[in-house]
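Hi V.,

You were right to ask for the full record rather than a summary. Here it is.
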Amino acid sequence: MMDGQTSRRDHRRSVPGREHARRLVRGTVTPNQLTGPRSTVPTSSLAQFGLVLVLTFGGCSGPPATPPQVPPRGEVAAARVALDNLLDLMRQRLLVQHEVARVKWHARLPITDPKREQELLDRAEAQARDLGLEPGFAREFFRAQVQAGKLVQQADFDAWQRSGTTPPDGGPNLKALRLQIDSLNRKLLEALKDAGRHLQHEVGRRAVQDRADVVLRGDGITAAVCQAACAPLLRP
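Predicted structure:
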C-alpha cells in the first residue's frame, strides 16, 4: 500500500507541466520561461505590435466609409434648371396626348400605331447620334414617352366609354399634332443632352424624382404615367 502511494507522488513530481502551471499562477514564472529558448520575442513587444495593427487597419471593420460627395451650390442650381426643363417638355408632350386621343376617337383609330412608333424611335435614335448622345439610351427614353402617352390616351378612351360622352370634334388634325410632337421630341433630345451629366450620379437621379412631383403634373398625368415616363432617367 505504501509503495502505491509513493509511486503516485513520484509520478506527480515527474510531470513538469503541473509544477510550471502552479508557478505561473503564483506569478513566480513568466510565459517566456515556460516556452524556453524557442520564444525570443518579449510579450510586451507582441502587444505593441498588435496595437499598431489595430490602429493601422481599424480591426475587422475595414477602412472607414468615404463620406458622400456634396455637389457645389452652383452645380446643384444648374442641375435643377436642366432637369426642370427636361421634365417640363415631357409634361407638354403628355398633355398633347389628349388631343391625339380625341382625333383617334373620332377617326376610330387604335391607340397603338406600330409603324408610327417605329419611325419615331428610329428618328430619335439618329438625331441622338448627331447630338453625341447614346443612341440606345435615347431610344429607351422615347419608348418610355410613347408608352406614357398611350396611358394618357387609354384613360381618355376609357372615360368616354364609361360616360357615354363624345369629345369635341374641333381642333388640330392628326398630322398637325404629329408635327407638334416631332418638334417637342427634338427639344427633348437637346434637353436630355443638357441633363445627361447630372443623370450619371445618384444625386441627379434622386433630383428627378423630387422635381417630377412638382413639374410633371397636369390633366391625366397620374402616378403611373409619371413613373412610366421617368423610368429610364432613374436607372444607373
